[in-house]
Amino acid sequence: MWEAAPNSSLAAEMNNTNSIEESQQLESFEKALKFIEDFTTNADKIQNRVLSEILSINAHVEYLQRHGLDGHTDRETFKKVIPVITYEDLKPDINRIANGDTSPILCREPITGFFTSSGTSAGERKLIPTTKECFERRSLFRILRTPIMNQYVPGLNKGKIMYFMFTKPEAKTPGGLVAIPILSRYYKSSHFKDRPYDPYNDNTSPDATIICEDSYQSLYSQLLCGLYQNNQVLRVGAAFAFGFLRAIWFLQKHWTLLCNDIRTGTIDAQITDSSVQEAVLKILKPNPKLADFIETECSRDSWQGIITRLWPNTKYIDAIVSGSMSQYIPTLDYYSNGLPIVCTRYGFSECSPGLNLNPLCKPNEVSYTLIPTMAYFEFLPVERNNEINNSEPNFLNEKEQQELVDLVDVKLGQEYELVVTTYAGLYRYRVGDVLRVAGFKNKAPQFNFICRRGVVLSIDTDKTDEMELQNAVENSVKHLIPFNTSVEEYTSYADASTIPGHYVVYWELINQEQATSIPPSVFEDCCLTIEESLNSVYRRLRVHEKSVGPLEIKIVEKGSFTKLMDFAISQGASISQYKTPRCLKFAPTVELLNSKVLSNYFSPKCPKWVPNYK
């Protein structure tokens, strides 16, 4: 009998790593791999059961009654009466819950809090309701990763992982529920704090350095511990590529302080958190020889291969590099001398559905197999052009809603937007991720992550869509009116080659000759106006996190965008359907416009941003 909830006996065996011999643990790994084989073989049967269970458990909740489901649990009725929705459609119900309404609006089980997303395409954070059972369900997702990885890189229990983890402060909704990013929620939970020792996931960072909410102290102390234990490290990483590179860039800036701490066995005075101090000093002892080695390596002119130089036993980098994070692959290759980059999982605030069953594949070939026990999945066919994903309308008519297909009915090579129905009360909810079917594991499809629907620019967790960028540019060109010029064409690019990365906006001007008489300060004001017009997530990253650099405007020669069109046509684009891409993702097009730059300008200061809960 297939269980929709996580297999409790499997989870118990996998988590009981402190009390079993290695041979017994390998036996539990075999059971985990058998579980994967079973769920990929019986994917449709499990999906039908999951949907039936979700609808049975939540039969009497207000949302399902409102839409007339009347206790039905079959797919046909569900698809007929329950609409496909976005977050905006659900926002009134979520606001009721956030404001303290405890009635069963979305699900029978009490809402215990909210996971906060990195930000919708409009830039504001989403509140995703969660329950105790939902949080525990994700444990299966976590424990399956180790058996998969052990098939490809055995012996990971013989050393440590330097994996950078960070915790953000929690907020409270008006009704008193906690709202916090999912990883922060996990690191603060008993699931993390009281976890048994796992030799396959023995981190160089003490828990106190992870739980510390001061980002400087947390990163500094985690790097210090990772450097001190450098010869024990077998793998390095962070949740996302950007997070790991941020640690490397931090090391470039602060290595002298870190070397001093290792040489003396002390911790820098800027680390004031007493629990962090105590945890680090339990590990740290004076080691002048190691300090000299790190100093020598960090003093070299080139930082190429710095990861394998400082952590010589590293076998791979563990970080997500799909989607917008793929822009960081060349940088990771540079710093690591081409170490394998492993993306083990696919997840988001609403659900944790996907695992990479071939983790040593090339980063641009990563595909994820959705776990059919995690949620009920549907797929909306989408069409995109070559440069950016279209911002499709949120409302789907009746015909479009009928086009959604089930997990086992997707077609190889087709792209789809993922739609989920979860145990925590999301029904036919559009996640916004565009996936491409890359192949199949038994009966279960495997997907490449392509992009976020509607997102044009992204450096960190910021997401700027086409309409938002257009409005920002329109606001900025008002500065040019007194000079009798304006913007004829524009496009943009997320430049990850700088530290930190930043947005670049290319402008071709009307009355180009007039531009030479415009003071540089005017274009700088244009840069700032664009930034002021962007969403609060972007501005927070610019002002508070400092993980996004000042926006840059590049003025290009007259006719540059015509040459851009000519290039696209030479690559097979139709002249009758060509539209200027609002974001460049193809390296030759970036190089083309960069070769036409006449002048460039940066935002002179940070945009306005005020911390607030939304």
From TrEMBL:
Keyword flag rRNA-binding: no
One Gene Ontology cellular component: cytoplasm
Residue ranges of domain GH3 middle in the record: 368-452
Regions crossing the membrane: none
Source organism, top-level taxon: Eukaryota
The keyword Transmembrane is assigned to this record: no
Keywords of the record: Ligase
Secretion signal, residue range per the UniProt entry: none
GO terms, molecular function: indole-3-acetic acid amido synthetase activity
A Pfam family: GH3
Domain GH3 C-terminal: 468-586
Similarity field: Belongs to the IAA-amido conjugating enzyme family.
Protein name as it appears in the record: GH3 auxin-responsive promoter
Gene source species: Macleaya cordata
